[in-house]
Specification:
The protein is an all-alpha fold. It has helices spanning about 1-5, 10-30, 40-55, 60-75, 85-105, 120-135, 135-150. The radius of gyration is 16 Å and the shape is globular.
Length: about 150
């Protein structure tokens, strides 16, 4: 949709989509296979990099967008609840658009704040650590809540 809106060429669209997907794959490489972390948020981080590219932004802009997203909504959980997934997609897209807008203006969250690190790579690795270690108990609690509702 963004590529159409900005009248991007087919090649620009392919490059943006490729960047988006590769970014998402990279982010997911640091996440556990089964996690309570909502994947829509990670997918939106990938989309943010593609949109930064289409906007003529730099690698640094894309990195800032990811760091802003990690700092903004790193705790959105997946509870396997179908209908609420659509709402989470909306939240992730809104977060992504805000992050891209801020990043393209040179705004970022400082590394002294929360989970955000100096480099985008360290920020992604710390997000992986947060989801692996910090959300480990969340998985079993969500499953217990869901199972209790079936009885």
């Amino acid at each position: 949709m963004v590529a159409d809106h900005w009248h991007s060429s087919p090649e620009q669209l392919v490059r943006a989509l490729t960047l988006s997907h590769l970014t998402l794959i990279y982010i997911h490489s640091f996440l556990p296979s089964l996690t309570a972390y909502c994947a829509t948020h990670a997918a939106a981080m990938g989309a943010a990099t593609g949109i930064c590219y289409l906007a003529g932004g730099s690698v640094a802009d894309a990195g800032r967008a990811i760091k802003i997203m990690v700092g903004d909504a790193n705790g959105m959980i997946c509870d396997g609840a179908g209908c609420s997934c659509a709402v989470k997609v909306s939240t992730s897209v809104q977060t992504m658009l805000k992050a891209v807008n801020m990043a393209l203006q040179g705004i970022t969250i400082p590394a002294t704040n929360g989970v955000v690190s100096e480099s985008v790579d360290d920020t992604i690795r710390d997000l992986g650590r947060l989801t692996s270690e910090g959300m480990a108990a969340t998985d079993s609690v969500i499953l217990k809540i869901m199972q209790a509702k079936k009885h």
